[in-house]
Here is the input.
Amino acid sequence: MAHVLLVDGDQNHASLLTNLLQSQGFEVTHAATHARALERLGMRPDIVVLDPDVPDGGGFTALRDLRSAPEGAAVPLLVLTRRGDEIDRVVAFELGADDYVVWPYSPRELPLRLRAILRRSHPRSAPQAGAATKLGRIRLSAAERRMWLDGVAYPMTVAELRLLEVLASTPGRVWSRHALLAEAWPEGDVQLRTIDVHVRRLREKLGPHSDLIETVRGVGYRVGGPYTV
Here is the structure.
């Protein structure tokens, strides 16, 4: 049973959403404030559903702090919000959201979106628990949500890891943004610009190895050749 940490300051909506998710087989822990959400990360939820306007979390502060906390750096996170502007979507993805759903939402669709994120987080195709993908100097582990490069570990969000898995699956291939979107987010309502946001986050995270992901002007992205041998 997947454990959802629901961060929502609206008690009525939180109760409705808790009932919905429990009816779909999820275990739900509710946090009504930003501070309580940070405390409950210690319960090691499988996924976080966050209303970024939760009390004491002003704007996207709660999202940033959840991602900055050691326990929350790689936990899958879905933003559930009334904010529908593109700039809000971009900011949320830049801060590490894995998916973004705007109210009003379909009660049937939301559990499906959560399961899709969890599938990407724990792919069934993995031959055994904790199995990792090895490609040259790169090792990827969905179970641990980490990438190792030359022996150094980098925590990854589900979205970042999935993007790397797709890029690294075919060394030398240049992936267009449309192809990456279709492969990495087949079930999601994700915009093309999201790809660029995740690539930028990955490059910032990798620091001196930011050239791992090469931009092919006018086409898309690929994993740099020197890293795959």
Remarks:
- The chain has two domains: 3-121, 133-227.
